[in-house]
Design a protein that fits this description.
heterodimer; A: Rossmann fold; four-stranded antiparallel sheet; 10 strands; about 30% strand; globular; B: alpha+beta; Alpha-Beta Plaits; 10 helices
């Protein structure tokens, strides 16, 4: 589903963020991406969502090389990837409903269809009662769940999460990981960046460990 | 795969309805957001209105002058005063001959009695004229010329030709005056057009700048829209609507300003016209002019916005 072939990413100011990175994630696979901050986790996820382009190497998503994707096709690529961020990236002046509806609204879907899907997504994350609320009135965990509802509302085959539980207490974090496992069960490909070592060591999934831009371990807990 | 190209197609009425509904939603939404910051919006609308009101007022003024001139131009002609010993019959014969000339559109013969009656009416010398034993006025032919002849190169030889005729005592030309008036109007028209262009450009920049600020304020929203897969076209749309609203409201206020000016001036203009024995009423913006103003200002808003959006909208694209 996601394949990196000798990918390098160099920033003019910071130097090389990723060095000769190669790995493959099968369709429906769930993997953790770990390493110290600055190890290149966020950069890796950004490359998949085409928020950045690699300096060298090939990235293939869903059988298509991203290098061949023209700029105007990027929005359609992003619609097939649900992205979840540590700082939620919600619109503060819009309701929970509007935030979750955004990925559908930009595709030109009729609003009745949008309503159905948004409620289904909010139901999945347990926030159906909050659709009229403003994100700022919600707790951190609730806001993160709004972000997750937004990521899944378009039913993308791939979900990327960048430190999704970084600011949450362990109990709330567990709820979030339960959600991810549920998506995994229905066949979504997930890649979750986290430095929560303890948690991922307790879960039986693949772990990609980055160190200073290099992939230093690709292991599996059984 | 699941990628859907957003495109409009008349073959799918439901899709078209969805598209229209989306546009309506965005139009209303952009208006609502504009009203959330009423002071900023008001400043922009006022600046656009003032920039548009000036050329609009000048166009209205020029139209009125033209209308006034049109009244005069109908009488713009060459008055040919015949020799005093010629009577109406001979005048009519000459008139027949002159009518054959290619420059002449029509000829009006003013008989000596008619001339005297007219003179009596306008001179206010009624009683004194009654003392005259005979009518001292000559027969006058009023030659109305074809508009093409109003160019000096053709007019001058024609007048020379008339003056050498034995029946003609002297000429009085109104045509030359009309000609100068025409040229002056054309000049003013060009001036107003240039001024309008300049001020229209000013309005465009004002709107463009407001949109730029708006984009700056909504940078997060635009970035997030980009993250969830909005196309540039979709992200732009809201700002184009905002620009259109600025233009439309600016045009409306400009129209109101000009209408108010016309209303304030109309009584005075009519009073002055009466002093000149003229029944003239100043005319404001009619339906066509108003429509043109509003359509033009709306387009100006869209173009101004499009320029700003093209330069400043960044959809979190890859670097």
């Amino acid at each position: 589903m996601i394949r990196f072939e000798h990918v390098n990413k160099r920033y003019p100011a910071r130097g090389e963020a990723l060095k000769d990175l190669s790995f493959e994630l099968a369709a429906g696979e769930m993997a953790f991406l770990t390493g110290h901050s600055g190890a290149g986790k966020s950069t890796l996820l950004k490359l998949i969502g085409l928020l950045e382009r690699p300096s060298r190497g090939q990235i293939i998503v869903d059988g298509r090389s991203l290098a061949d994707l023209p700029r105007r096709r990027i929005p359609y690529h992003r619609r097939r990837i649900g992205m979840i961020f540590q700082d939620h990236q919600l619109l503060r002046d819009r309701s929970v409903y509007d935030n979750v509806a955004l990925p559908l609204a930009v595709t030109g879907m009729p609003s009745r269809e949008i309503g159905r899907r948004v409620r289904a997504a909010l139901d999945q994350v347990g926030l159906l009662a909050f659709e009229r609320a403003q994100p700022v009135s919600l707790s951190g965990g609730e806001q993160q769940r709004v972000g997750i509802a937004r990521a899944i509302v378009g039913r993308p085959p791939i979900i990327l999460a960048d430190e999704p539980t970084g600011n949450l207490d362990p109990e709330l974090a567990s709820e979030i990981y339960d959600l991810f496992e549920r998506f995994h069960e229905v066949g979504v490909t997930l890649m979750i960046a986290t430095h929560d070592q303890e948690r991922i060591s307790r879960m039986a999934y693949r772990i990609l460990r980055l160190h200073q831009g290099r992939l230093i371990a690709d292991s599996r807990n059984w | 795969m699941g990628t859907r190209q957003a495109g409009s197609s008349g073959r799918h009425p439901r899709r078209l309805a969805t598209w229209a509904e989306q546009h309506r939603e965005i139009a209303v939404d952009s208006l609502r957001q504009m009203l959330q910051q009423p002071l900023g919006a008001l400043m922009t609308v006022a600046a656009v209105a003032i920039a548009l009101a000036l050329p609009t007022a000048l166009v209205v003024a020029l139209d009125n002058v033209k209308r006034l001139g049109g009244d005069w131009q109908r009488s713009a002609a060459i008055s040919v005063f015949l020799e005093a010993d010629l009577d109406e019959t001979e005048g009519a014969q000459l008139s027949q001959r002159l009518r054959q000339l290619p420059e002449v559109e029509r000829i009006e013969l003013i008989s000596r009695t008619a001339g005297l009656a007219e003179f009596r009416q306008y001179s206010g010398l009624g009683a004194a004229l009654d003392q005259l034993s005979q009518n001292p006025l000559p027969v006058v032919l009023e030659l109305h010329l074809k508009p093409a002849i109003l160019e000096p190169v053709r007019l001058t030889p024609f007048i020379d030709q008339l003056e050498t005729m034995p029946e003609v005592d002297f000429l009085r030309e109104d045509a030359q005056w009309a000609q100068r008036f025409q040229a002056m109007l054309a000049l003013l028209h060009t001036g107003v057009a240039l001024l309008g262009l300049l001020l229209g450009l000013g309005a465009l920049l004002v709107i463009g700048n407001s949109i730029r600020l708006e984009i700056e304020n909504r940078r997060d929203e635009i970035r997030i829209m980009g993250l969830v897969g909005a196309t540039a076209r979709f992200a732009r749309r809201r700002f184009l609507y905002t620009g259109a609203w600025y233009g439309l409201f600016g045009g409306m206020v400009a129209g109101l300003i000009v209408t108010l000016m016309v209303w304030l001036l109309s009584a005075q203009v009519s009073a002055v016209a009466i002093l000149y024995d003229h029944d003239f009423h100043i005319q404001g913006l009619d339906f066509a002019a108003t429509s043109l103003l509003l359509i033009g200002s709306t387009l100006l808003g869209i173009i101004g916005s499009r320029i700003a959006v093209g330069r400043h909208l960044d959809l979190c694209d890859e670097r």
